[in-house]
Amino acid sequence: MAKVAKTGDLSLSSEHDERAALMQDAGFAKTTGTVMGSPIQLGFPNAQFVMVFPYPEGSHDASVKQSYLEPMEEPTTAWEAIFQGRERPALVKDGISKQDFIAAVKDGVIDVLEGDGCNIVDFFSVDGDEHFVTISIEDPKTFSILAAKHEARARVKPDAYRNAKKKVPTDQKMGKGKEFDFARIDFDERHLNGATMDNTCTAFVRYAEDIKEKLEDLSEPDKLRVARRTITQHLSLPALEQAEVMIKFFAAHDWEKVQELYARGWSNPLKFYKWPSAQMPDYLATYFGMQVAYFFHFYNSFMKWLSIPAILSVVVVIVRHSHVLSLYQVHLMNSAFGAGLCLWTTAFLASYKQDMDYKTLHWGMQGASAEVAQVRKSFRDELRGTFRETLQNLFHWVLCVLFIAETIGAVAYLTEARSLARDSPEESTMGLPNTVFVLAAKYLVTVNIKVVDFAWMSLSPWLSGRENWRTDAELKSAMTLKIFAVKFVVFYYPFVYTLFIQPHVDGCEVVEGREDHPLQGCLEQVRSDLGVFFITQVISEVVEIAVSIAMMYRTIKAEMSRKSEGRQHLSYLEFQALGTPYTVTDEVADYMDVVFNFGFIAMFGVTMPPMCILCFLASFPLKRLAGYKFCYVQQRVIPRSQEGIGSWIGILNFVAYMGVTVTCYIAIFIFHVEHSGAFQLLLTFVIAERAVGIFKFAIEAFLSSKSVAQQRIEEYNEDVLDAVLSKDTAAVVVPKGKRAHLQPSAPGASASGP
Predict the structure, then answer these.
(1) 542, 519 contact by CB (below 8 A)
(2) Distance CA 718, CA 503 (A)
(3) What is the pLDDT of residues 17-33, one digit of tens each?
(4) Is residue 4 scored above 60 in pLDDT?
(5) Considering the entire predicted model, what is its pTM?
(6) How far, in Å, are 174, 217, 671, 727 from residue 214 at the CA level?
(7) Cα distance between residue 740 and residue 99, in whole Å
(8) Are 637 and 580 in contact (CB under 8 A)?
(9) Given this model, what pLDDT does residue 15 score?
């Protein structure tokens, strides 16, 4: 039987002592922790999900109380949308107040969840205007039934292989031929619950009660997925939010595991110097789920591979500034560095793709993309394929074109204005002396990039969220494409223009002592602009996270300023409720930051090698700040099934191939290492670009998407899984079958009916 308890050291009335005693009886110890300098009350129930309902009776604002006494609009329709078939009580009818409707729905929600096997604990917020309802499934038998009902994925125990006299698959092979064995390796790091981490890779299967003894316990994200499906099987969360009955719904953090992440340095900004751990994505997968694990696995891989061009760029910078080489030799060295970057992007992406596919196997996410996804609350099936939907999507694409056009126009104007100002130093431009404007122009390029980027990142996700996409996966795919299309032009076009177009339209500034290299001025200009932009980009990313932390701190203080008598601290669940949810927009923005850093190195690293060093060094504190944000600023990510990083692989490959084209152009035309005519330079460029492209293709073909170890594991699991999961290994005796021989009719014979 599920448990319903009222707890809380919520001093809203004389019931405080009684409720506090109930909390103590339920085993919830009163302990405190500290987050952002504020004490947090721990010891609340081990909730999996939390619903937050408005509680107007506890509001300190008289106008708010009065608004909830007004009649509820279409209460019967709202009730039916929320409960999907549950009988409507008599008091829910036209004329019922919002306050009474919320109370009736809240009681109905608790009854439904209790009937579905959930434990419910409720309490009031520190300022008394919100009612928290925590949800958990703790009874093992109940959870087993629900896990089987919702077809959760579960890993087969290694002991199940041993009991069936089969080898336990790992990614390491010992021996040759048919007598080989798998080698198990225990890693130094452990899962957040203290369990050993090793390289075993047993199969994942659908959870079923008849084989549960052969299956490992579900991970926390899997348990959360089961709990969420249990909640939504009879309740509509979107309808609860649309009716403004439920104001928040989030997955609850585990305080001890969050503190363990901080102790390991993953979310501790002061430990930014620590090298990325190979096992870190694995324990993130068993706590946060796939969205966070895949992102940090990608981030870790990028950082590790980035160390190669970062080290090489140090050598290039030292040699360049030692003045031991002529300009021609320096350009030749830079061209070799650019060729190395082309090979680096290929090797990085091929290696990462292999690692990602192995993680997909190891985390049991193969085929996850085919699972049924949650429908978005704003989706309307009746709008699909209508003129309104088409017009809405078209309008978004028109805005894409307008933002791209703004960037092209702004760059052309600033470039021309800079050129004119350089030629007429005694005049002024935009109210600035031309000598000042020439210096300021490179900052104006960065300002335009940041302003347009901010506007598009604010507008495009807002528009995408209001489009009629059925699932979050569809929304993310559409949002990613539109945001990337604009940002690709906004971020890269100013520098492409300087190198590709400006030399033929406005010309390049003549560099003293480099008159024999007419494009040297454009090269110096793009280096200067890149330096300003990249430093600004790093600073803006740090400031963005710092601002979100400061806003969270301010929100905590504001909430505590309204606390009720007798309450000393926020509870940990209330603290989490103050955080912002991790949305599809946040996920897209996180990937965008890393992908565009990769793009700058792939396309322009050859012109400015120090950018590789800066990007590499900046990645360390930025990754720690991102971890801190996931643990203390945003609500816990609601886990969902995910197979790889989706469309980002295609985007990364596109950027890498663009990097080959741009790098070859710079090496042939800008560095001018081949002193030939225009036709010979063009021919050299085409041959070089095609040669590098073919070499990239050859490497990608050689390094297949699946490693040999992964193929061996998949083949072995497919061969032995039936025997491992078999309930009875003894021989089964069945009755012997019968044999009959039919004599065909003679030629020409005919059959007649009765």
Answers:
(1) no
(2) 60
(3) 443 343 444 444 457 88
(4) no
(5) 0.86
(6) 26, 10, 64, 10
(7) 78
(8) no
(9) 37
As a whole number of angstroms, the distance between CA 169 and CA 714 comes to: 9
Residue 289 near residue 224 (C-beta atoms within 8 A) = yes
**Do residues 13 and 2 lie in contact, with contact meaning Cβ atoms separated by under 8 Å?**
no
Return d(Cα 84, Cα 239) in angstroms, integer: 10
Instruction: State the average pLDDT for the chain.
Output: 84
Percent composition of the chain: helix, strand, coil (DSSP 3-state, to 5) = 60, 10, 30
Instruction: For 288-343, give the secondary structure using H, E and C.
Output: CCHHHHHHHHHHHHHHHHHHHHHHHHHHHHHHHHHCCCCHHHHHHHHHHHHHHHHH
10 Å CB burial of residue 97 (0-12, 13-18, 19+) is: middle
Beta strands in 334-487 (DSSP E): 428-429, 432-433
**Model confidence pLDDT, tens digit, residues 707-740:** 888 999 999 999 999 999 986 545 556 677 777 7
What's the burial of 196, exposed, middle or buried (CB within 10 Å: 0-12/13-18/19+)? exposed
Number of neighbouring beta carbons within 10 Å of residue 744: 6
- When pLDDT is averaged across residues 83-107 and rounded to a whole number, the result is 88
pLDDT value at position 37?
80
226 and 147 Cβ atoms separated by less than 8 Å: yes
Which of residues 689 and 3 earns the better pLDDT score? 689
In 3D space, the residue among 203, 228, 158, 191 whose CA is nearest the CA of residue 366 turns out to be 203
Helices (H), 164-289: 220-232, 237-242, 255-263, 280-285
| Residue reference for tokens 């528009």 | 463
Q: Could you tell me the two tokens for 1?
A: 């039987």
Question: Mean per-residue pLDDT for 49-78?
Answer: 88
- The pLDDT score that the predictor gives to residue 272 is 87
Provide CB contacts within 8 A for 697, sequence distance 6+.
none
- In the predicted model, what is the mean pLDDT of residues 536-552? 88
Angle between helices 584-604 and 520-561 (to 10 degrees): 160
In this prediction, residues 127-150 reach a mean pLDDT of 90
pLDDT bracket for residue 373 (50, 70, 90): low
> Cβ distance 660 to 685 under 8 Å?
no
Beta strand extents in 339-491 (DSSP E only): 428-429, 432-433
Q: Given this model, what pLDDT does residue 28 score?
A: 45
Q: Which candidate, 175, 166, 36, places its Cα nearest to that of 718? A: 166
Which is more confident, 753 or 262? 262
- Pairing between β-strand 38-41 and β-strand 32-35 as defined by DSSP bridges: antiparallel
SS (H, E, C) 606-632: CCCCHHHHHHHHHHHHHHHHHHHHHHH
Q: Are 505 and 525 in contact (CB under 8 A)?
A: no
Are 445 and 385 within 8 A, CB to CB?
no
**Burial group, residue 483, by CB count within 10 angstroms (0-12, 13-18, 19+):** buried
Percent of the chain with pLDDT over 90: 37
| Closest by Cα among 647, 541, 659, 634 to 590 | 541
CA distances from 642 to 207, 372, 723 (A): 18, 11, 29
Classify residue 44 by its DSSP letter.
-
How many Å apart are CA 468 and CA 173, to the nearest integer? Answer: 50
* Per-residue pLDDT at 191: 87
Given strand 49-54, what is the order of strands in its sheet?
4-6, 119-124, 130-136, 49-54, 248-251
